[in-house]
Amino acid sequence: MTADSFPLERTSRPLPDDERSAILADPGFGKHFTDHMATAQWTPDAGWHARGVGPLEPFTLHPSAAVLHYAQEIFEGLKAYRHADGSVWLFRPEANARRFARSARRLTLPELPEEDFLDSVAALVRADAAWVPAGGGEQSLYLRPFMIATEAFLGVRPAHEVRYCVIASPAATYFSSGAGGVTLWISTTYTRAAPGGTGEAKCGGNYATSLAAQLEAQAHGCDQVLYVDSAEHRWLEESGTMNIAVLTSAGELVTPPLGTILEGVTRDSVLALAADHGLTAVQRPISVDELAAGCADGTITEVFAIGTAAVITPITRFLGEGVDITVGDATAGKTTLALRKHVLDIQYGRAADPHGWLRRVV
Length: 362
Ligand code: COI
What we know:
Elements: H1 17-25, E1 36-43, E2 47-55, H2 66-70, E3 73-75, E4 78-82, E5 88-91, H3 93-106, H4 114-127, E6 140-149, E7 162-171, E8 182-187, H5 204-208, H6 210-219, E9 224-228, E10 236-239, E11 243-248, E12 252-255, H7 265-273, E13 280-283, H8 288-297, E14 300-307, E15 311-320, E16 323-326, H9 334-347, E17 358-360
Parallel strand pairs: 8-9, 8-15, 12-13
Antiparallel strand pairs: 1-2, 1-7, 3-6, 4-5, 4-6, 5-17, 6-7, 9-10, 11-12, 11-14, 14-15, 15-16
Helix pairs in contact: 3-4
The structure holds 2-OXO-4-methylpentanoic acid.
């Protein structure tokens, strides 16, 4: 990955070192942002142009910009990890680039070439390398590439002016409970996606509509929602920000098939690592009834959520209307924690990377 195609104009007002250090000591998630951002613009005539990395600053948008009215927007999430020797690495950024292109096609946004995605992310991480937290714990620099329709026009058609941007935010674990385990609310009020909809795309609209479900989950004392399918309200799909998988006593790692769920990069990585843990990876529908019966009779031994932000997070309980399912003994499962450690060890350079997933940027 070269950074030359996104030339750097360094900010003249970086955050002072002591303030940045204070943030890195306790970054939380998504609260603080680095000194720079990468951007590019697109029009049908010029194609992608005006690529660069410059100071992080607010956008100026016309109030009629299409994104503000019709939500023509997509985004990605990936992280930069500092290894013990100080080097900084990305994890499978090509997979994010390809998903970004798929999301763009679904939202009728222009596809950003894969090399632009990779170069922009690498250039931003290099510019803000001082913001990548030390790698001893689970901190990282969370990268948020996104694309918005900026054209000032109220007609409903694909916009003719588009902006791409990458911002970066130092991040600790997504859930304050870390690897301790979370409870999910199985919503029958709200669904996330239907065949033919935008369920597979990573677009802001999917997350906007998840907020009511998230509040419903919290009102029932749960950490997040778990969606079921829209037709039968029976089949597990994914949670608000994560894919889901169950482990069975027969040694299977089962996760719902693609179609209406997000094609998670961490989900795909866990499927590839399953065999190292003596597990057979299976993609097939799982019903709420199977989940309840399996957790009751011990044929489902562990359940966990999978995502870039959440890594692998044990799920210890499910609640829903007339549903109360405890997974195992309601503590984080052994194999879940082993898988979690395996993924993190690869990301932080503490384990072998036989799949060639890491890309060095600093
Ligand atoms: C990610 O894991 O990168 C996500 O997209 C979750 C995010 C919405 C917080």
